[in-house]
C-alpha cells in the first residue's frame, strides 16, 4: 500500500481557535485522517521538533500554520516547516493578516513589556524583573525566545503558498482545501481559498441594504436592539461586510452581529481598513465639519475597528515611533 | 531618488482635482508665482476620487506629506465629491494620529480655479511645517525593523537551531 500524503498543523501567536476549527470538522475528520497521515500537530498529538527535523525536506505534502509571528522561536519553526513541506498554508486570520495579535503593532515593544511586567493593576514587581533571553543558573544557561519589535504575518517571514482566511476558517473551507490538495489540481500560488467577492454578496440581508446608506449616527451593537432582518449598516452599526471577503456564509450576521472583517479584503483591495473607512465616510449624511466630527465620535477606535484582524498586513504595518 | 539625511528635503505628494485646484496650480504657473519645488502633483478628476488607500500607500512608499486639493464646498463639479473627501479626511486624520503620523503631514485644502496665490501659500506653508517635522521615512523604518528576522535567517543552521540573542 502506498504511503498516504502527509499533513501537518502548527500554531504560532494564536488563541487556539484555529486548532479547534480542525476538530470542528466533526465526522469529516475521519475522512481527512483516512486520506492523509497527520505527521505533526503539537496541540493534539505528541510530536517533537526533533521529529520534524528528522523528516526529509519537502516530505510533508502540506502544513497549515496558524497564528501570527512575534518571537524568534516562531520564526524558527516557520522556517523549519517551510523546508519540510511542499505546500505551506497560512491558516486563519493571524497567519494570513496578523489577526488580533497584530493590534499590538499599535504599541512599541518596550511599552508592552512595561505594562505587562510593571504597570498592569494585577502586577507586583518591585524588583523590576523583566524576562531575559538568556539567564545563567547553577552554571547552566536557560534561554527564552526573542520578543520581536513587531507582529508579522506568516508571509512576512516565510514563503506562503495558500491562505485560508477566517477567525477561525470554517470547517467547510478547511474540508474544501484538503480535498483540493488531494485532488492535485492546485490553484495558482498565493490564492486565498475562499470566494473573491465581498461578504455583502452572500449576506442574507442584502436586499435590505439601501443604495445610499446615509449614516446619521454610529451605534455599537450593545446600544440598541438590532433589527434581525435589516442591513446592519442601514441601522447605523459598523459592519465590515462591504470591505471583507465572503466565504463564512455571514456567520456573524446570522447571529445578529455585524461583520468584524476576519476574512480580510478581496484581491482588489490593498488595505482593508482604508477601504471600509472610505466606504463608510462616503455614506455619512452630515456635510459641515462640526456635524461630521460629532458623528465620528461614534467610532472611538478606528484602528481597532477597521484593522481588527489585519494591522500587520496593512500598508502602514505599525505605529510610527516618535523620533528615529 | 534617495537623498541622505543631511540633504533631506521634504517630499510631498499632492492630489489636485481637475476642475479647481489643478487649474489653480496651472494659474500659479502661468502667473509665474514661485513656490517650493517639494510637491509632486497628481491630477485626479475629483478630490472624491482620492481613496484613503492612496494616501496610506503614498506614506508607506516614503513620502513625508500628502496634500489634497479640491473645490470649495458647494462648488464640486460632481456636486458632492469634495464632501466625501472631507468626511474621509476627518476620519483618516484620527486614524493617522493613532498610527503616530503627525497631523501636519496630511492636509486638505479647498482651492478654487482662481486661487493661484493660495496654491503658492498652502504649498510653501506645508513644506515648512513638514520640514520642521523631519523625514517620515516609513520604508526605511520598516526595513530597519525587518533586519531582526534577517539575522535569524543567516544564523540558523538547518540541522540544529538555537538562537541566543
Task: Give a structural overview.
The complex is a heterodimer of chains A (about 325) and B (about 160). With about 325 residues, chain A is an alpha/beta fold. Chain A has 11 helices and 9 strands. Chain A has 2 domains: about 5-100 and about 150-185, NADH:ubiquinone oxidoreductase-like, 20kDa subunit (Rossmann fold, 3-Layer(aba) Sandwich); about 200-305, no CATH class. Chain A is about 30% helix and about 15% strand. Chain A is globular, with a radius of gyration of 22 Å. The N and C termini of chain A lie far apart (about 60 Å). In chain B, strands 2-1-3-4 form a 4-stranded parallel beta sheet, with helices on both faces. Chain B has one domain (about 10-135): Rossmann fold (3-Layer(aba) Sandwich). The interface between A and B is large, with 52 and 43 residues.
Instruction: Report the total helices of chain B.
Output: 5
Major beta sheet of chain B, specifics?
4 strands, parallel
Structure classification of chain A: alpha/beta
Number of domains of chain A: 2
What CATH architecture of chain B would you give?
Answer: 3-Layer(aba) Sandwich
CATH architectural name of the largest domain in chain A: 3-Layer(aba) Sandwich
Helical segment tally of chain A?
11
CATH topology of chain B: Rossmann fold
Whole-number radius of gyration of chain B?
20 Å
Approximate helicity band of chain A:
25-40%
How far apart the termini of chain B lie comes to 35 Å
Oligomerization category of the chains in this entry = heterodimer
The largest sheet of chain A, given as strand count, sense and whether it forms a barrel, is:
5 strands, parallel
Mean pLDDT of chain A comes to 94
Number of E-state strands of chain B:
4
Detail the poorly predicted runs of chain B: 158-165
**SS strand fraction of chain A:** 5-15%
Amino acid at each position: 500500500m502506498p504511503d498516504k500524503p502527509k499533513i501537518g498543523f502548527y500554531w504560532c501567536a494564536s488563541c487556539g481557535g484555529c486548532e479547534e476549527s480542525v476538530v470542528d470538522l466533526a465526522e469529516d475528520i475521519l475522512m481527512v485522517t483516512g486520506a492523509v497521515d497527520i505527521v505533526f500537530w503539537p496541540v493534539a498529538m505528541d510530536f517533537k521538533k526533533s521529529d520534524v527535523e528528522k523528516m526529509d525536506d519537502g516530505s510533508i505534502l502540506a502544513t497549515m500554520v496558524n497564528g501570527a509571528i512575534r518571537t524568534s522561536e516562531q520564526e524558527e519553526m516557520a522556517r523549519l516547516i517551510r523546508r519540510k513541506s511542499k505546500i505551506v498554508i497560512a491558516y486563519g486570520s493571524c497567519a494570513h493578516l496578523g489577526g488580533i495579535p497584530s493590534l499590538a503593532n499599535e504599541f512599541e515593544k518596550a511599552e508592552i513589556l512595561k505594562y505587562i511586567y510593571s504597570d498592569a493593576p494585577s502586577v507586583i514587581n518591585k524588583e523590576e524583573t523583566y524576562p531575559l533571553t538568556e539567564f545563567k543558573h547553577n552554571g547552566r544557561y536557560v534561554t527564552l525566545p526573542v520578543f520581536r519589535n513587531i507582529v508579522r504575518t506568516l508571509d512576512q517571514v516565510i514563503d506562503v503558498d495558500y491562505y485560508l482566511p477566517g477567525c477561525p476558517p470554517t470547517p467547510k473551507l478547511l474540508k474544501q482545501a484538503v480535498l483540493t490538495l488531494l485532488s492535485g489540481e492546485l490553484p495558482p500560488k498565493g490564492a486565498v481559498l475562499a470566494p473573491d467577492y465581498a461578504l455583502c454578496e452572500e449576506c442574507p440581508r442584502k436586499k435590505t441594504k439601501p443604495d445610499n446608506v446615509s449614516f446619521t449616527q454610529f451605534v455599537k451593537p450593545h446600544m440598541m436592539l438590532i433589527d434581525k432582518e435589516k442591513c446592519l449598516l442601514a441601522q447605523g452599526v459598523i459592519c465590515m461586510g462591504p470591505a471583507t471577503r465572503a466565504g463564512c456564509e455571514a456567520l456573524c450576521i446570522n447571529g445578529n452581529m455585524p461583520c468584524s472583517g476576519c476574512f480580510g479584503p478581496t484581491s482588489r483591495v490593498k488595505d482593508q481598513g482604508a477601504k471600509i473607512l472610505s466606504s463608510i465616510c462616503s455614506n455619512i449624511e452630515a456635510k459641515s465639519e462640526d456635524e461630521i466630527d460629532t458623528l465620528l465620535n461614534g467610532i472611538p477606535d478606528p484602528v481597532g475597528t477597521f484593522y481588527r484582524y489585519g494591522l500587520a498586513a496593512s500598508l502602514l504595518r505599525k505605529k510610527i515611533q516618535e523620533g528615529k | 531618488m534617495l537623498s541622505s539625511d543631511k540633504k533631506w528635503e521634504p517630499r510631498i505628494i499632492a492630489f489636485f482635482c481637475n476642475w479647481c485646484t489643478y487649474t489653480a496650480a496651472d494659474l500659479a504657473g502661468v502667473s509665474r508665482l514661485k513656490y517650493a519645488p517639494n510637491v509632486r502633483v497628481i491630477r485626479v478628476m475629483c478630490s472624491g476620487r482620492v481613496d484613503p488607500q492612496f494616501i496610506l500607500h503614498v506614506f508607506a512608499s516614503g513620502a513625508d506629506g500628502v496634500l489634497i486639493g479640491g473645490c470649495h464646498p458647494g462648488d464640486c463639479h460632481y456636486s458632492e465629491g469634495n464632501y466625501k473627501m472631507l468626511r474621509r479626511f476627518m476620519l483618516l486624520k484620527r486614524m493617522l494620529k493613532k498610527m503616530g503620523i503627525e497631523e501636519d503631514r496630511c492636509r486638505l485644502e479647498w482651492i478654487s480655479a482662481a486661487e493661484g496665490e493660495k496654491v503658492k501659500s498652502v504649498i510653501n506653508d506645508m513644506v515648512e511645517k513638514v520640514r520642521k517635522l523631519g523625514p517620515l521615512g516609513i520604508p526605511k523604518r520598516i526595513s530597519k525593523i525587518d533586519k531582526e528576522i534577517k539575522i535569524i535567517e543567516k544564523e540558523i543552521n538547518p540541522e540544529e537551531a538555537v538562537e541566543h540573542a
